[in-house]
Write a structure and sequence with these properties.
Blueprint: H1 4-16, H2 24-33, H3 38-44, H4 49-57, H5 66-80, H6 90-95, E1 158-161, E2 166-169, E3 174-176, H7 182-191, E4 210-213, H8 215-220, H9 243-250, E5 254-255, E6 263-271, E7 274-282, H10 301-314, H11 322-333, E8 337-341, E9 348-352, H12 374-377, E10 392-394, H13 402-406, E11 409-415, H14 418-423, E12 428-429, E13 434-437, E14 447-452, E15 476-480, H15 481-489, E16 498-501, E17 505-506, H16 510-526, H17 535-548, H18 550-568, H19 595-620, E18 626-628, E19 631-636, E20 667-674, H20 675-683, H21 688-693
Parallel strand pairs: 1-4, 4-7
Antiparallel strand pairs: 1-2, 2-3, 5-6, 6-7, 8-9, 10-18, 11-19, 11-20, 12-17, 13-16, 14-15, 14-16, 18-19
Helix pairs in contact: 3-4, 10-18, 11-18, 15-19, 16-18, 17-18
């Protein structure tokens, strides 16, 4: 027989047990009966609307002290709004007259309709007695997979792991992760999590699951909360003798050449057709650059999962910085190989996938390379280089007219993802370059041309379309095909001296452009910026879009960074203090190290920008004050682009010039300053566009 001490211990355990909530459906019914929205309830409980949604659909449970507050609220609502046919709660019964207790209950007959069964409201209970520390209440592990597009990955592409073992997935899913070490986490992810994403191309590979670690989760797994060192944060790695790195090696897992850094990829060699690879991202190690993912690191784990999940669904599961993801997306959409049947043996073998860059890296032509590249150092090349870069130009102050100086405003127009728009239907070289002397220019052949364009006359109030700084060329120089073709478009004869051209060509970037354009336009639409808005409504929507949903606004920033970073990554320069000129750096081992493709995108974008400025001058007589990358600044009589953009009598924008809209290549308002300020900046030798745009000048060459 149990002793008195044992009985009292059992009773105390019951008293200290955390409160039990009514069923999820009843929680939602009580809230709706009270006329309270999920957002308002989330504000009262200092949580997110998604968390409330999870509580009401049974995907997760609140934890103390929020659990006690939620229980108290539900008890109060249950007293006010009892379920139909349910017994009154204790508080209601106490308020009823005593005589009512003796009243006979209404009888039901066989013919009377039965009330549908509903869960009874939870009885009111006293708040739990104070205790030293509330026990953590972990959400129940998910038992059954929710319907998904791919049954192999029922829980989406990624999860954000918190220190309490809760792994927050996309769509509000919360999984129970029991892992206590990095090795256990990898094995749980591959065997039990149900995470991953299907391939983007029939010849590609499925995306590896991504686990994002909060600071608490990193510490729990034996990792330092922060990586400290004198190098740039993105270059920091755990030392080889760190216990976690040794645990990974002892369990026969491998790390990539990047080591165990903010983005760590842990894998084993492929066995059969099954990939064994998990991507980790550690938030407290600055895995998410705030310039690309503004505010995401400070969000709750469920919100981080939502933001990254939207990006993964619309773009790609993140595999590193946005620059890395942009480059990985190119390969995922244009896999280098495809399976074909060998007629001799009947076996399936790997073959080149038409339209891709193949599996082997390709050296560029000397003028397309960088000064430290082996093809330049080893050959002693001194013939010059391509200088296809984005604009950084300011109109000389002495070319400003009195009328322009009297205008009160300088307005900045920024082209939506201008470099993405330039990638559309862009024909690039797919084979190695061939050298030609005195070739006839052909605008349909991608390559690099040595040609003298110094004789081309351009209005001095516009930047030259042939140089990034807008100055007129002084002699022969190397240009990409689009730049030379624009000289022909302006009516001038071009006679190349020599060229490096590619015989095999294709629109390699087309699927990359299409996917990122759709992601950009859809995300803007979710933020209230849709294609059906007129120009005035568009400007108003753009002014407030970042406040509509900070999470989706971060996705939009990440998409834009993916475009610029991905293009910049095509010409990644050597990194690290130990590099010596003439050595091959790791990026050169990729088939996607293609500076000629980067030059083609930038050349086309710069030519498109100049064409719009020239048309604007023809239609309105207005000339820009400055251009920085994809931002152009105009003098204006008002503080809106509507005050100077050309419109037809019908009210529709004139074709050929700058137009407002959410589509890539169309313009949006970037900033407004006083004209006196702009002139003052120009006199000091600064670019007004840099001040309006915040310094976003050139394509980043990646991380």
């Amino acid at each position: 027989m149990a002793s008195e001490e044992e009985l009292f211990a059992s009773v105390d355990a019951l008293l200290n047990e955390e409160p039990h909530l009514p069923p999820p459906a009843e929680r939602a019914r009580l809230r709706k009966a009270a006329g309270i929205t999920q957002a308002r309830l989330a504000t009262a409980l200092k949580t997110t609307p998604q968390s409330v949604k999870n509580w009401e659909n049974g995907r997760s449970e609140p934890k103390s002290p929020r659990l006690d507050a939620y229980q108290r609220l539900l008890n109060g609502w249950a007293a006010k709004y009892p379920a139909p046919g349910a017994a009154p709660t204790a508080s209601v019964a106490a308020a009823a007259p005593a005589a009512s207790v003796s009243e006979p209950a209404a009888s039901t007959t066989a013919d009377a309709p039965q009330a549908p069964a509903v869960p009874a409201a939870a009885p009111a209970r006293r708040p739990a007695a104070p205790r030293a520390a509330a026990a953590s209440r972990r959400p129940a592990p998910k038992k059954a997979a929710q319907p998904a597009a791919d049954l192999r990955f029922p829980h989406g592409p990624l999860a954000v792991l918190n220190g309490d073992g809760c792994a927050y997935g996309t769509g509000g899913i919360v999984l129970d992760c029991p892992a206590a070490t990095v090795v256990e986490l990898v094995e749980w992810t591959l065997r039990e999590s149900g995470l991953g994403a299907p391939k983007l191309n029939r010849y590609g590979k499925d995306s590896d699951p991504l686990i994002v670690l909060t600071a608490a989760a990193a510490v729990k797994l034996g990792l330092p909360e922060r990586l400290e060192g004198h190098e740039q944060r993105r270059s920091l790695r755990l030392p080889e003798d760190h216990p976690v790195v040794q645990q990974v090696a002892k369990a026969k897992w491998r790390l990539t050449q990047r080591g165990f850094g903010p983005w760590a990829r842990i894998y084993r060699k492929v066995q059969g057709r099954e990939r064994q690879c998990v991507q980790l991202a550690i938030l407290s190690w600055d895995a998410l650059d705030p310039r690309s993912w503004p505010g995401v690191t400070e969000m709750e784990p469920a919100d981080v999962a939502r933001v990254l999940g939207v990006y993964a669904t619309r773009v790609i599961t993140p595999r590193g910085s946005t620059a890395v993801s942009g480059l990985e997306l190119m390969t995922a959409l244009r896999p280098p190989t495809r399976a074909v049947r060998d007629e001799a043996t009947g076996n399936w073998v790997s073959a080149y996938n038409t339209g891709s860059l193949g599996t082997e890296p390709m050296d560029p032509a000397p003028p397309e390379a960088t000064a430290e590249h082996p093809v330049v150092v080893d050959s002693g090349w001194t013939g010059g280089f391509l200088n296809e870069e984005a604009y950084q130009w300011v109109r000389p102050v002495d070319l400003l007219t009195d009328e322009e100086c009297t205008l009160p405003f300088a307005v900045g127009l920024d082209l939506n993802t201008a470099f993405l728009a330039a990638a559309a239907r862009l024909v690039v070289g797919l084979s190695a370059p061939d050298h030609f002397h005195a070739p006839k220019f052909n605008p349909k052949i991608p390559g690099s041309w040595l040609v003298d364009l110094s004789h081309v006359e351009v209005d001095p109030r516009l930047p030259s379309p042939f140089t990034p700084d807008g100055t007129r060329p002084t002699g022969p120089a190397w240009y990409q095909t689009h730049t030379v073709a624009y000289a022909q478009e302006l009516g001038y004869n071009v006679e190349p001296i020599e060229a490096y051209l590619r015989r095999e060509t294709g629109a390699y970037l087309d699927p990359w452009h299409d996917r990122l354009k759709t992601a950009y336009v859809d995300t803007l639409a979710d933020l209230g910026v849709t294609r059906d808005l007129d120009d005035r409504a568009f400007l108003a929507a753009m002014e407030r879009h970042r406040d509509v949903d900070p999470g989706l606004a971060a996705v939009l920033s990440a998409i834009k960074a993916t475009v610029k970073g991905g293009i910049g990554k095509l010409r990644e320069r050597p990194q690290g203090k130990h590099y010596k000129e003439g050595e091959r750096w790791p990026a050169l081992q990729r088939p996607t190290w293609r500076p000629d493709i980067r030059a083609a995108v930038i050349s086309k974008a710069r030519v498109n920008m100049h064409r719009k400025m020239r048309n604007m001058a023809t239609m309105t007589g207005l000339y820009p004050l400055a251009v920085l990358s994809d931002c152009v600044v105009y003098p204006s009589p008002g503080n809106s682009p509507l005050d100077f953009l050309p419109y037809a009598a019908s009210g529709k924008p004139q074709p050929g010039g700058f137009r407002l809209g959410p589509t890539p290549g169309l313009a949006k308002l970037e900033g407004v300053q006083s004209m006196l300020w702009a002139v003052d900046v120009m006199e000091q030798g600064y670019n007004p566009a840099r001040h309006i745009k915040g310094g976003d000048a050139v394509l980043d060459e990646g991380e």
